[in-house]
Amino acid sequence: MPTPSTVVDRAVGCLLGGALGDALGTPIEFAQLSDVRAEFGEQGVTEPPPQALLGDSTQMSLFTGEGYLHAWTTGNNGGAWQPVEALAASYRRWLTTQQDDRPPGAATGLLAEAELFANRSPGLTSLRALQEEELGSPERPRNSSKGCGGVDRSAPLGFAPTPEMTYRLACQSAALTHGAVGGWASAGAMALIVHLTAVQGRRLPAAVDQAAGRVLRDDSETAAALAEAATLARLGASVGHIERLGQGWIGPEALAIGVYCALAVAKPEQFADAVRLAANHSGHSDSTAAVTGFLLGARHGTPVLPRQWLARLELADVIERIGHDLGASCSGEQFNERRYLGLA
C-alpha cells in the first residue's frame, strides 16, 4: 500500500493533472480536428495557453473536493456525516460563481476566490439542475441526461475511505445533476479508478478492469466503453481509436477516451503526450484531456507534471491545497480542518 505522503502527493497530482488537461483542451473544446490542425499545426494544440485558465470541469472538481472535505471534517468533529448534502450545497456555491461577478462580502473557502467567478462554458444540464429546488439521485432522477458533467468533476471523490464508498458517493454526486444511469455510473467508475490507483496503489490497467466489473452492475454501456478503451490501448495510440470511442460529450464516452489515452501513453514521462492525445480530436477536448490528466496524476503523482505548464496554471496554489487536504483526509495525515468546518 502507498504511504500517507505518497497518497497526498498523488492527490495533489490528480487535481493538478486534471486541471492541466482541462486548460490544454479548453481553447479547442468545440472545434473539429481539421480546424485545430489548421490553426495550430499538424500536431494540434501542444501546450496550454500562456494564461492557462481553469475550465468548468476543474472549477466543479474544486467544489467537489471542498464539499467532500466539509462533510469529512464535520463528521470527524462530532457532527453528522452528510456527504451528499454537503456536495449539493457546494455545487450551489459554484452556481453562485456563474451568476454573480464577484465574491459576496462574507464569503469563505472557494467562494472567496475572485478568479472562480468566471464563466468557462459550463454544461447547461448542471446549470439548470442546480437552479431547481430538488436535486436528483440515482433512485429519483430529475432529468434524463448522461452528459459528461458528472464524470469530469468526480476525481476528488476517489479519496474517500473505501472503494465502495468512493463509487457510491461519486454516483450520488453526479446524479444530483445528471439523471440517466450513464451520467452517474460513469462518474462512479472514474472515482473508483482514481481510488484504486492513488490510494491502493493498483496499476492502471488492473484498476480499469476492476472498475469495469463494478460498474457493470449498474450500467452495461459504461462497462463496455471501458473494456473497449482497454482493448484499443493495447493496439497503441491513435486518433482513429478515439473516434471509435466517441466524442466525449456523454459520460461513458468521456471516461473511455480519457482512460484510453492514459493507458495507451502510460509512461510517467509521457504525461504531456497523453493529454495532448486526449485533447486533439473532434469532440469534448477539455473534459477528455482532464480525465486523462486526473488519472495519470493519481497514478504517478506530481513529479510527472510539466513544470512550465504548472507555472502558468490559474489558481495552482488553490488546486494544490484542496488536493493536499483530500489526500491527508484519506491517509490520516493532519491538515487544517477549520478551513472547511465553517462552510454553509
Automatic annotation (TrEMBL):
Q: Does the keyword Hydrolase apply?
A: yes
State the name under which the record lists this protein: ADP-ribosylglycohydrolase family protein
Record: residues binding Mg(2+): 56, 286-287
Q: Which family does it belong to?
A: Belongs to the ADP-ribosylglycohydrolase family.
Q: Which Gene3D superfamilies match?
A: ADP-ribosylation/Crystallin J1
Q: Where does this protein come from, organism-wise?
A: Saccharopolyspora montiporae
**The keyword Hydrolase belongs to this UniProt entry's keyword annotation:** yes
The ranges of region (Disordered) come to 132-155
* Pfam assignment, any one: ADP_ribosyl_GH
Q: Molecular function (GO) terms listed?
A: hydrolase activity; metal ion binding
Name what cofactor the protein needs: Mg(2+)
User: Sorted alphabetically, which SUPFAM superfamilies does this protein's record hold?
Assistant: ADP-ribosylglycohydrolase
Q: Please provide the record's keywords in A-Z order.
A: Hydrolase, Magnesium, Metal-binding
Q: Which domain of life is it from?
A: Bacteria
The family database entries (InterPro entries) matched by this protein are listed as:
ADP-ribosylglycohydrolase, Ribosyl_crysJ1, Ribosyl_crysJ1_sf
Task: List the lineage, top down.
Answer: Bacteria, Bacillati, Actinomycetota, Actinomycetes, Pseudonocardiales
Q: How is the cofactor bound?
A: Binds 2 magnesium ions per subunit.
